[in-house]
Amino acid sequence: MWATLKPLYPEPTDMSGSTLERSEDSGQFTSDTDEKILAAMPPNEPVRARDIADETDIPRTTVNYNLNKLADAGEVEKKKFHERRVVWWRSE
Fold first, then answer.
1. Alpha-carbon 2 to chain mean position
2. CB neighbour list of residue 66: distance below 8 Å, 6 or more residues apart
3. Which domains does the chain have, with CATH numbers?
4. 42, CA 20 to 30 Å: which among 23, 49, 54, 55?
């Protein structure tokens, strides 16, 4: 009977369903998706979310969501040139 009970609080996941893990440095939750996005960003070079999505095969909406989350955590920065033109780069 007890083996069929589900956990009260499931493991946290991101929008793509990747399980989140708490970073030892910041205490923030990070995911495989975050790691793939950061790996696709060359150091000190601005990139568009579309370019990251094309390179990683992650949907662009998920890339945008995670980039905004990473910006809130201070991992990346962004500059908006126009209402729909944004570039992102890794924070130093």
1. 36
2. 14, 15, 31, 33, 34, 37, 58
3. 28-92 (1.10.10.10)
4. 23
- Long-range contacts of range 3-8, CB-CB < 8 Å, 24 or more positions apart? none
SS3 92: coil
Q: How many CA atoms lie within 13 A of 15 on its CB side?
A: 13
Taking the C-alpha atoms of residue 90 and residue 71, their distance in angstroms, rounded to an integer, is 9
Q: For 56-83, what is each residue's pLDDT tens digit?
A: 999 999 999 999 999 998 999 999 988 8
Phi-psi category of residue 86: left, alpha or beta, with phi > 0 → left and psi -120 to 50 → alpha: beta
Strand partners, 47: 88
Residue 37: name the closest of 92, 87, 84, 90 by CA. Answer: 90
What's the predicted TM-score (pTM) here?
Answer: 0.67
Comparing CA positions, the residue from 19, 50, 56, 53 lying closest to residue 36 is 56
